[in-house]
Amino acid sequence: MRVGHATRNGDGWLTGTTVVLAPEGGAVAAVDVRGGGPGTKETDALDPRNLVQKVEAIVLTGGSAYGLDAASGVMAWLEEQGRGVRVGVDPAHVVPVVPAACVFDLGRGGDFRARPDAATGRAAVEAAAASEPGAPVREGCVGAGTGAVVGQLKGGVGSASTVLDSGITVAALVVANAAGAVRDPETGVLYGELFQGRVEYPEAHVHDAARRRLAEVAVTNGPPPLNTTLAVVATDADLSKAQAQKMAGTAHDGIARAVRPVHLLHDGDTVFALATGTRPLDAGNPLALNEILAAGADLVTRAIVRAVHAAESVEGPGGVWPSYGELYGGR
Questions:
Q1: CA angle, corner 304, sides to 143 and 268, nearest 5?
Q2: Between the CA of residue 67 and those of 7, 61, 103, 141, 143, what are the distances in Å?
């Protein structure tokens, strides 16, 4: 898997697109949507009952429903590479199936009409294709996380990965952009860190200063921001579409540990799952999938925490969103 970002900021812009590019030939894909107000494209194709078995790319984008246009640019690039579902004898006759989901960030840069389009999507997939396999993923205010906000804090992109005892790799990429909060208002600790067992409570004067700052911001910004947390959970295990869908579903637990509340009517929380199939599951163990399911949820929590720590403060015509680092230092 390779990840590419296209970032637009300044002159009214604060948005972008992130593409997760599968190895050539695609990856088994599935999706689980829990939010009551999702903005998605091609998710029906991922139903285990339906025809498409593999996809070449997943698109995460800003711009709300308008930003789903970014997937068109990714489709065009994939078609040029001959990557997609073959629909004829000519190898060039392919239809790339590109599932996509969006976050709401309209107007956060000051211009409501500044949102990703096909050119943004193309730039993101080209960046993914140009990256080296295994290269670190850029985190923070990049790609689809450029205009992301979590509660009153600046959100962004985060990632995490692990290698299980079985040798199977599991990884997660998130765009943290939620109406719910990631920070305990009583202590200042990130909810996700409570589940990671690495709790360091800020000093009282630091927390008091942070609360005063957020109270000032609330007056400036007005009503809480709209949705959504998006995630892609990937593994090199050999999974069926049904197993991948289970992985997408349990990965939502990772969001629920790090964001409160989640999955409400105005959220669009969506998790995609990808499996490259290079490592078989233990055929003699009917519960072999369990360690992958547990890891996926844990990694989504870790990725949200990393996104919040990597985010940088933004102050502009669209609003003021301090980062967690600005409020609490380099904790």
A1: 70
A2: 13, 6, 8, 17, 12
Which residues are 56's β-sheet partners?
none
Task: State the burial class of residue 204 (Cβ atoms within 10 Å of its Cβ: 0-12, 13-18, 19+).
Answer: exposed
Phi, psi of 220 (to 5 degrees): -70, -45
Say if residues 94 and 79 touch (Cβ distance below 8 Å): yes
Q: What is the residue-wise DSSP string for 139-196?
A: -BSSGGGTT-EETTEE-EEEEEEEE-TTS-EEEEEEEE--SSBSB-TTT--BHHHHHH
pLDDT, tens digit only, all 331 positions of the chain: 999 999 999 999 999 999 999 999 999 999 999 999 999 999 999 999 999 999 999 999 999 999 999 999 999 999 999 999 999 899 899 999 999 999 999 999 999 999 999 999 999 999 999 999 889 999 999 999 999 999 899 999 999 999 999 999 999 999 999 989 999 999 999 999 998 776 788 988 889 898 888 888 887 777 766 678 999 999 999 999 999 999 999 999 999 999 999 998 889 999 999 999 999 999 889 899 999 999 999 999 999 999 999 999 999 999 999 999 999 986 5
36 Cβ contact list (under 8 Å, min separation 6): 263, 264, 265, 266, 267
